[in-house]
Amino acid sequence: MAEPRLVDYYSILNLPPKADLAGIEAAYARLSDDLMRQAQYDDSAREAMQRLNEAYAVLSKPELRREYDRAFFRAELERLEREARAAQRRRNLAGNILVAALGLVVAVQAAALLYLGWDSATALFRAIAGWLM
């Protein structure tokens, strides 16, 4: 079953999610004054005022706001956690590849030392190093 969508109280108050309590109170005061004036002429302003009151009732109380934010931003937090886990996996993979490549270099050097002998292998590796630089 699909999860019901929460009402975006921040957009009702026309505020960013990081707004502080003073900003919430100022936005509520400004918007409620405008809606009270409009309510005399427009019935939809009454409904907007109810939504505004509901948004203010939740966002103006720290505990209710934390609970609301946890529910409202859960999907965003889950996405950020997935991205962090994916980045950690990429870092682990890159580290593992680097260790494997270094192990391969050491193995090739050891095999060359065993097969060619010390002097020939040293000359070969110096030649390769000179060619790479």
Q: How does this structure look, described?
A:
The chain is mainly α and 133 residues long. It has helices at residues 9-12, 21-39, 44-59, 62-72, 74-116, 118-132. The two termini are 62 Å apart. This is DnaJ-like protein.
Q: In summary, what is this structure?
A:
With 133 residues, the chain is mainly α.
CATH fold topology of the domain at 1-72? Helix Hairpins
Overall CATH architecture of the domain at 1-72: Orthogonal Bundle
Task: List the secondary-structure elements in sequence, H or E.
Answer: HHHHHH
Low-confidence stretches: none
Count of helical segments? 6
Structural class: mainly alpha
Helix content: over 70%
Q: Mean pLDDT, rounded to whole units?
A: 88
InterPro entries: DnaJ_domain, J_dom_sf
Coiled coil: 70-97
Organism: Tepidiforma thermophila (strain KCTC 52669 / CGMCC 1.13589 / G233)
Keywords: Coiled coil, Membrane, Transmembrane, Transmembrane helix
What is the strand and helix layout of this fold?
Blueprint: H1 9-12, H2 21-39, H3 44-59, H4 62-72, H5 74-116, H6 118-132
Helix pairs in contact: 2-3, 5-6
Which key phrases capture this entry?
about 130 residues, mainly alpha, Helix Hairpins, transmembrane, membrane, coiled coil, transmembrane helix
